[in-house]
Each structure stands twice: as C-alpha cells, then as structure tokens.
Design a protein that fits this description.
Arc Repressor Mutant, subunit A, three-stranded antiparallel sheet, 6 helices, 63% helix, globular, HTH_MarR-typ
C-alpha cells in the first residue's frame, strides 16, 4: 500500500467532497432569502442561543471567524436590520450580538427550503443509526479541534 492509499486521505477527501457538494446544494436556499452561508450560520446560532444573543467573542468562535471578521459580519447584519449590538451592565467588557425580530422573520422565511434541502441531500440519505453515529463522531472531532465552539450546537 502506498502512502496515497492511506484511508486517512480517503476520509479527508470524502469529507471535503461531501462538504463542497452540500454547500452547492444548500446555497440556493439561503441566497433566495438574501443571505450568505455565513449570514445564515450566524443567525441560526443566535436564534438557538439563550435570549437569542451571544457575546461577539462566542459568535466569532462558533463561526470560526476572527475578531475583525465577526465585527464585519455583525456590521453587515446590523445594517440589514437582522441583528443589533447590545451591552449589558453586568458584563461591561463584552458586546453581544442579538437577533432582531426582522432577523427571526428572515430565518422563518429561509428555514423551510433550507431544511428541505438538508433532508434531501444530507440527513435523509442516512439511516437514524448512521446519522446518530455521524453526529457523535463530528462532535468528538469538533470538540478536539474547536473547543471554543462547544457551548452551543
């Protein structure tokens, strides 16, 4: 067996191909709602967080963005009226990004097509056992390589 036949390379190659293919299938759903994939990811994370808000640093970690990258993202989403920045008296050092009612409404508009596409091209192609195993495995890997994102799935 040569180094190029290593199953680790096969696993990474399949992961990259699956990711690229899924993004291509999912993109029309978020584009139709006037969002980028990054926009949708951020709005989904905010919608699933307590109070529909996250500290900017937590949002950066969960979206794999730098501090300046998350600032630009939140600036863009704020200009669109989908999020707002907030400070809280008990945590003066932190700024929070909070989902607005318009942001929640935009998610409601995008979500049906997005979920249908996820079902058609991803989760619906797996048995319950396969999906459970995949989720378990992805969490193990995510927790190891990106521990800052663990707070909210």
């Amino acid at each position: 067996m040569s180094d190029f036949d290593d199953p680790r390379l096969t696993a990474m190659g399949l992961l990259f191909e699956a990711h690229g293919g899924l993004v291509a299938r999912l993109e029309p759903a978020w584009r139709k709602g006037g969002l980028s994939g990054l926009d949708l990811n951020a709005l989904m994370r905010l919608s699933r967080s307590p109070g529909q808000r996250l500290r900017m640093s937590d949002l950066a970690a969960q979206t794999s963005l730098s501090t300046s990258g998350v600032t630009r993202l939140v600036d863009r989403l704020q200009r669109a009226g989908l999020v707002r920045r907030e400070s809280f008296p008990g945590d003066r050092r932190a700024t929070y990004a909070t989902l607005t009612p318009d942001g929640a409404e935009r998610l409601k508009q995008v979500l049906p097509d997005y979920l249908d596409t996820i079902e058609r091209w991803f989760t619906g192609r797996l048995t319950r056992e396969q999906l459970d195993g995949l989720l378990t495995g992805l969490r193990v890997i995510r927790d190891a390589v990106h521990p800052d994102a663990v707070a909210h799935d």
